[in-house]
Amino acid sequence: MEIWIWVLVVIAAVVVELLTTQMISIWFAGGGLIGLIACALHAPVWLQIVLAAVVTLILLLGTRPFVNRYLQKGTVATNADRVVGQTGIITEAVDNVLEQGRVKVLGSDWRAVSADGTPLAAGTNVRVERIEGVKLIVSPV
User: Fold this and answer.
1) For residues 50 and 64, what is the distance between their CA atoms, to the nearest angstrom?
2) CA angle 99, 103, 106 (to 5 degrees)
3) Which domains does the chain have, with CATH numbers?
4) Exposed (0-12), middle (13-18) or buried (19+): which is 28, by Cβ within 10 Å?
5) Per-residue pLDDT tens for 21-50?
6) Helix, strand, coil % (nearest 5) of the chain?
7) Is the CB of residue 84 less than 8 Å from the CB of residue 129?
8) Cα 48 to Cα 14: distance, rounded to the nearest angstrom
9) Could you give the angle at the alpha carbon of 20 between the alpha carbons of 17 and 21, nearest 5°?
10) What are phi and psi of 47, to 5 degrees?
11) How many Cα atoms sit within 13 Å of 53 on the Cβ side?
């Protein structure tokens, strides 16, 4: 009976991997395969589980950094990513208390709030510190 459990673990891990776009379960398939082999060699259940867990962990720790680099290779910065660190100009006075303010950065108009909470007048040059939701967090240049 144990052998069928290991077969199911391997099949389930492979199926989940095939149904996703990220590598999230292939390591469990490797661990399950080792558990299956240990079962076929009549190892005790506790040893099968320990071997499967250790191999899964080794595969995960050994290959995940390389897989992450490969999967993120095609990542392209979006328009939102590009504005962080850029300089813009306030087009509508920024007041965190009144929850108002707009800034123009790289030709796009954004809702803005002051990083330190101080009001900023229209026409002030600002630097984009970060983005929170659809708001730019800005500070005067």
Assistant:
1) 21
2) 150
3) 2-71 (no CATH), 79-140 (2.40.50.140)
4) buried
5) 777 788 899 999 999 999 999 999 999 999
6) 45, 25, 30
7) yes
8) 19
9) 110
10) -70, -35
11) 6
Q: Which two tokens stand for residue 41?
A: 């060699």
3-state class of 75 per DSSP? coil
Q: How many CA atoms lie within 13 A of 87 on its CB side?
A: 5
Which candidate, 109, 94, 99, places its Cα nearest to that of 140?
94
d(CA 46, CA 31): 14
Q: Each residue of 77-130: pLDDT tens digit?
A: 566 778 899 999 999 999 999 889 999 998 889 999 999 999 999 999 999 999
